[in-house]
Design goal:
mainly alpha; globular; two-stranded antiparallel ribbon
Amino acid sequence: MQDRYIILPFCRICMSWFPSLLRQCVTTTSILKPSIINIPLRKNIAITILLFIPLSLKANSPDSIPITEIETKSTSRHFPFIMGITAASFLADKPINSYFVSNRSSFLNSATKITDLAGDKYLIIPASVITYGVAGYIIRDEKLTNTSLNSIQALATTAITTEIVKQLAGRARPYTERGSHHYSPFPIKNDDFKSMPSGHAALAFAAFTPFAENYSKWIYLIPVSVAAGRVYQNQHWFSDVMVESTPTTSFS
């Protein structure tokens, strides 16, 4: 359990270090200047699959077997399924977006603001750390300690990977009305072009998957509601949340 002594500073360093490094690279390298790209659907899907291969290997397993050993086997077995789901989700982007835009309600507006909290990094990262501390040092629950540690590790890995993919893709959010195939790579701080993947959905699945696997599958309803809420709010395309949640749920 030496991980407990390094994981918290690791999370803090990674969360603050990566954005500043990327900013430095963009400042000093003119070739990274954002450019506007409109990519046809088939190329869009192919590029997305390539971008999300690392996400299928992220650290979210709730057991103690080496994660690379588990998920490398799972990747080869489920990869055709992932490609099919990814392709289908891109085809459904515009119809689903149009449906939600046309079917607003005050209840859903309020409900999705609540579900957003379960994917807010400023809430779930401290909550996971507190859970780990309470479980490990106060109530001495080994199962909860291991589960919360896995959750923290998954959050750290996912936060870094998600930001990298957001910067590489630079996909326009639905509310910009630029279409689902509009990309402007390396948006840095321009949130309008950080649609893919959904950070809220990614962090929610990373945080709650270990708990769902160790305690109850019903816990998956929390990250699923976060993902659905982000699409409803016109913050993300349907494919943004599907390409993130599919590897997580498939390889758990």
